[in-house]
Amino acid sequence: MLPNRAAVEGVAAQMQLAEVKGRSLWADARSRFFRNKAAVVSLVLLGLVAAFALFGGLFAQYENDFVDFSLIGSNAYLGVPSIETGHYFGTDSNGRDLFARTVQGTGISLMVGIVGALVAVIVGTLYGATAGYYGGRLDGLMMRIVDVLMSIPFMFVLILMLVIFGRSIFMLFLGIGLISWLDMARIARGQTLTIKNKEFVEVAVATGVHPLKIILRHIVPNLLGIVIVYATLLVPNMIIFESFISFLGLGVQEPATSLGALINEGSRTMQFGYYWQIAFPLFFFVVTIFAFFFVGDGLRDALDPKDR
Amino acid sequence: MLSFVVRRLAVAIPTLLILVVLSFILMYAAPGGPFNSERPLPPEVLANIEAKYGLDQPFWKQIINYVVSVVTQFDFGPSFQYKDRSVNDVIAQGFPVTLTYGFWSFVVAVTVGMSLGIAAAIKQNSWLDYLAVGVSIGAQVLPNFVMAPILLLVFTLWLGWLPGGGWNGGQWQFLIMPVIALSTSYMASIARITRSSMLEVLNTNFIRTARAKGLPMRRVIWRHAMKPTILPVLSYLGPAFVGMITGSVIIDVFFSTGGIGQFFVNSAFNRDYSVIMGITILVGTLTILFNLLVDILYAWIDPKIRY
Amino acid sequence: MTLKTKLFATTSALLIASTGALYADGHATHPVTGETLASDQTFTYRDLDESPSIDPGIAEDSAGGDILRDLFEGLYNQDATGNLVPGVALSHDVSEDGMTYTFNLRDNAKWSNGDTVTAGDFEYAWKRAASPELASPYSWFIELMALENASEVIAGDVDPSELGVTAIDDTTLEVRLTQPLPYFPQMLTHFTTFPVHQATVEEFGSDWTKPGNMVSNGAYVLTEHVPQEKLVRERNEMYWDNENTIIETVTSLVINDENVALTRYLAGELDRTDVPAGQFPRLAAEYPDQAVSVPLSCSYYYLFNLRDNAPEEIQNADVRKALSLAIDRDIIVDNVLAGGQKAAYTFTHWATAGFETPDIPMASMTQAERNAMAVELMEGAGYGPDNPLEIDLVYNTSESHKSVAVAISQMWKQTLGVETTLANQEWQTFLEARSNGDFEVARGGWCADYNEASTFLDLMQSDSGYNDSKYVNAEVDELLAAAKTSDNAQANYDRVEEIVAEETPIIPIYHYASVKMFAEDLEGWPFENFQQNWYSKDLYKIAE
């Protein structure tokens, strides 16, 4: 489910190497990344998907919650995708424009993915950096807590939470973030242990800079590489995860929707021949996830070049 | 090594306790109760039921009673929803089912995934590689709640080859579709991880040396490259295992297999407290044990790791 | 085992083997209709979910009821149209005051282990169902039956042995009520009143309902039960009317997803399944002999929160009426659901026995007229495009509730400019919110307990426990109380429906229909039975 920890750790090792060599890591990485065709194409695709989510609504002929009552129940022949009717992607089973809904669903899915990943990396990085920086007993305690939390089947806990506190986007972010910050915390701690022995950190300590400031100013910036890679690989997993939650009926509230919810509805009606109801959302879902995976892989390779 | 195992097992006990308390609190915070229905029960009927299940006692007493009966008698209490059964009955019936198709899915995911990944790495940039990468990414992004109805349409309705659901004691015809639907996305992940890990290993100096010495490729791969390749795959197996147990929810819904996934989701919706607790503890224990097993395997394969 | 019982067992087995063969050879004919019977007499159907219990005293859902009517037999059964036919009881006498019933039981009714079914088995079962010790969620049914001491027994104030039911001898059962109940015999087809075998219950405790342990007196016995997967029951050789039972094996499969169930039905794995919302027209066109829609005794409605804590907008009857008028029920029933449901302007289901749907002015208007009137009312209340009404609508998680809510919120928006916030809540959360008054508008559904209009309209009574609106109207209370003893209850019901339509504490939306697919060769289904109480022993499959 989560990105491969070992691969991400390689990135960090490389960043330190770059520092030793005194070369600009970021410039190097950028040029390597742009040589990776799959990653570049994926980045362009991601841009297009994001543009679709942001501006697609301008082209929609209908509001995403507008029900065309004449179309309900006659999907098979009236709700088909068509340029003339303005329903470019057809309508859903409730007579709503699928184009507008796909635009809106793509937006929600991207947001859930990105915000979920952000929550995870921010919490994980700060937690890991703090544990690593202070070391000693605090470190031991904080990492035991991570060990304990890792053994909890969080998907189950999340289902309980959504059932109990009612569904909301906030709850989704919180739940998803909760599940995925643990790995990040471990990686961040490991890197912090090496960074904190560097001269610039020691100088800062010697001049009496507040520990919190050291963590934020000196340690976290040096973790940025792995954070970016980890986050990129986490986003598609968050999106897949949200689709599972939608399947259970615990996703976002109507009339808002997400790609997962649309796919779930589409998969119910495909046996009746309404293929477009699953095809369009699934297309955007697949493209988004593909693209994130490739960009993530590309970033990792760019930041961690081993002559392949 | 032994002390490591002991230490990990010692952590497991507080972990499970935390899990129990957390789930208990979550359930208490939940609106509704196991005995609500469209037609509210008269108060005297409700009082009888609560007395029968010990819900009329204070919160702390319930937790203590619960923990004591679990620890001393391995008794998870009666199910509140399925009134003819105890939680032990529910688990005894549902868990072997989940375990059976989970086990086969695991086997399929690991063997097919690794073979695909290794083949792709060896023939890097060939049509085989592209095919393997394409198939694995495709399989990874197709959610299994889409896969399941498609399988049903094709194999049950159109071709008529396989029964559309049920378990029938685990006959092979009833296993095929659940295993395919559950294993594909994990198979794909394993293939991707294996491929990149193998590529990395093949580029290391010791493999280059081995090949330069003229050892045949097959031997190089089996003798030298396999072990380091497996390590990242191993660390993925922990999350994969948990994912499969959770994914059983979807399998049970679509294929009516009667595994614990369905029981868990239903009991969460029905506020069947005792079943939620029982299954959460079971899955928590399994997760801990499985993660431990993975760590032990890891240490066994990679002698560099010291605990 | 003595020689005698052994002999008996073998002869009966022989007897059955021969009757079984008679039906299995494919040339047998139905004893009444003369149709040629199929050689394969199995009936397999879909259940949405596992039933909480199959113990007659504890069971609580209608799917469990279907199973129990096969496994057990109460004093009376229903025929295809819902009329009473003898079960274990052959007849009964009622005392002058209508409070004492004496039932005459048949002497040839047998348990599946060969024991005779006696009046004592009923006495035991009823006392057990009411006892606080069993703590059955359906013990209130015994209270509903108005049995003497029922409330006191349930509350634990008197011993269950004081319950108003006594076995005079093996074939005579006396029942004492606290008030005359004209529909009392009808209630005896309900599973809570089914007998249980005391020795078995006492031997196995709560395990007695497991296959192998269970002893039952119905036309079928339980042979296999895998929760969340299937439940299999087979012909009971000991059943008194065994020779007229045709279906050999009945299997209920638990299939949560209705679309999956439909796929499996079409693949020939099921003989009966449910039709997903909106799919009836297509399936009826494609499989005219298989898709069936019959009225089901439930009403679907939205209710307003009329408690003091609710926002004042919806305390205004004009606003409520406008919202009701603006709902185009024809679209809901014809397009959204499309399964033979009927548009509802009254709360009482149109097909309820002895109920004549009164003339509600709204019902005879066109939708354009209704919309015009709605806009007028809304403007009168001070809402319009500049000052749109905002309202929250909660419903419980389900595809069809969602479709209805989406359509209605759009009707309100498009006609009245009302901004609706939809909130889909998971079942238990929903129930809690609704009974605590934590909502503005909520979905409701109500199914008849018995076939008479008061089963619906009593919800409008201000002190009814099910009146989640907390609607209070003294006139309605009086009318409903008077209807209990009135010779012409219909007049009272008409008036109540008129008041409800005018004040709109609830918005009736549609009256349910049961929409199913039935295998072509399956015959004998009681479509005319309003409560859809069916018995597998009345079904049969014909050869094609």
TrEMBL record, chain A:
<keyword id="KW-0472">Membrane</keyword>
<keyword id="KW-0812">Transmembrane</keyword>
<dbReference type="InterPro" id="IPR035906">
    <property type="entry name" value="MetI-like_sf"/>
</dbReference>
<dbReference type="GO" id="GO:0005886">
    <property type="term" value="C:plasma membrane"/>
</dbReference>
<comment type="similarity">
    <text>Belongs to the binding-protein-dependent transport system permease family. OppBC subfamily.</text>
</comment>
<keyword id="KW-0653">Protein transport</keyword>
<protein>
    <recommendedName>
        <fullName>Oligopeptide transport system permease protein OppC</fullName>
    </recommendedName>
</protein>
<dbReference type="GO" id="GO:0015833">
    <property type="term" value="P:peptide transport"/>
</dbReference>
<keyword id="KW-1133">Transmembrane helix</keyword>
<feature type="domain" description="ABC transmembrane type-1">
    <location>
        <begin position="106"/>
        <end position="295"/>
    </location>
</feature>
<feature type="transmembrane region" description="Helical">
    <location>
        <begin position="169"/>
        <end position="188"/>
    </location>
</feature>
<dbReference type="InterPro" id="IPR050366">
    <property type="entry name" value="BP-dependent_transpt_permease"/>
</dbReference>
<dbReference type="Pfam" id="PF00528">
    <property type="entry name" value="BPD_transp_1"/>
</dbReference>
<dbReference type="GO" id="GO:0015031">
    <property type="term" value="P:protein transport"/>
</dbReference>
<dbReference type="InterPro" id="IPR025966">
    <property type="entry name" value="OppC_N"/>
</dbReference>
UniProtKB/TrEMBL annotation, chain B:
<feature type="transmembrane region" description="Helical">
    <location>
        <begin position="233"/>
        <end position="255"/>
    </location>
</feature>
<keyword id="KW-0472">Membrane</keyword>
<comment type="similarity">
    <text>Belongs to the binding-protein-dependent transport system permease family.</text>
</comment>
<dbReference type="InterPro" id="IPR000515">
    <property type="entry name" value="MetI-like"/>
</dbReference>
<keyword id="KW-1133">Transmembrane helix</keyword>
<protein>
    <submittedName>
        <fullName>Oligopeptide transport system permease protein</fullName>
    </submittedName>
</protein>
<dbReference type="InterPro" id="IPR045621">
    <property type="entry name" value="BPD_transp_1_N"/>
</dbReference>
<dbReference type="Pfam" id="PF00528">
    <property type="entry name" value="BPD_transp_1"/>
</dbReference>
<dbReference type="InterPro" id="IPR035906">
    <property type="entry name" value="MetI-like_sf"/>
</dbReference>
<keyword id="KW-1003">Cell membrane</keyword>
<keyword id="KW-0812">Transmembrane</keyword>
<feature type="transmembrane region" description="Helical">
    <location>
        <begin position="101"/>
        <end position="122"/>
    </location>
</feature>
<dbReference type="GO" id="GO:0055085">
    <property type="term" value="P:transmembrane transport"/>
</dbReference>
<dbReference type="Pfam" id="PF19300">
    <property type="entry name" value="BPD_transp_1_N"/>
</dbReference>
<feature type="transmembrane region" description="Helical">
    <location>
        <begin position="142"/>
        <end position="162"/>
    </location>
</feature>
TrEMBL record, chain C:
<feature type="domain" description="Solute-binding protein family 5">
    <location>
        <begin position="84"/>
        <end position="467"/>
    </location>
</feature>
<dbReference type="InterPro" id="IPR000914">
    <property type="entry name" value="SBP_5_dom"/>
</dbReference>
<dbReference type="InterPro" id="IPR023765">
    <property type="entry name" value="SBP_5_CS"/>
</dbReference>
<comment type="similarity">
    <text>Belongs to the bacterial solute-binding protein 5 family.</text>
</comment>
<dbReference type="GO" id="GO:0015833">
    <property type="term" value="P:peptide transport"/>
</dbReference>
<dbReference type="Pfam" id="PF00496">
    <property type="entry name" value="SBP_bac_5"/>
</dbReference>
<keyword id="KW-0732">Signal</keyword>
<keyword id="KW-0813">Transport</keyword>
<protein>
    <submittedName>
        <fullName>Oligopeptide transport system substrate-binding protein</fullName>
    </submittedName>
</protein>
<feature type="signal peptide">
    <location>
        <begin position="1"/>
        <end position="24"/>
    </location>
</feature>
<dbReference type="GO" id="GO:0043190">
    <property type="term" value="C:ATP-binding cassette (ABC) transporter complex"/>
</dbReference>
<dbReference type="InterPro" id="IPR039424">
    <property type="entry name" value="SBP_5"/>
</dbReference>
<dbReference type="GO" id="GO:1904680">
    <property type="term" value="F:peptide transmembrane transporter activity"/>
</dbReference>
<dbReference type="GO" id="GO:0030288">
    <property type="term" value="C:outer membrane-bounded periplasmic space"/>
</dbReference>
<dbReference type="InterPro" id="IPR030678">
    <property type="entry name" value="Peptide/Ni-bd"/>
</dbReference>
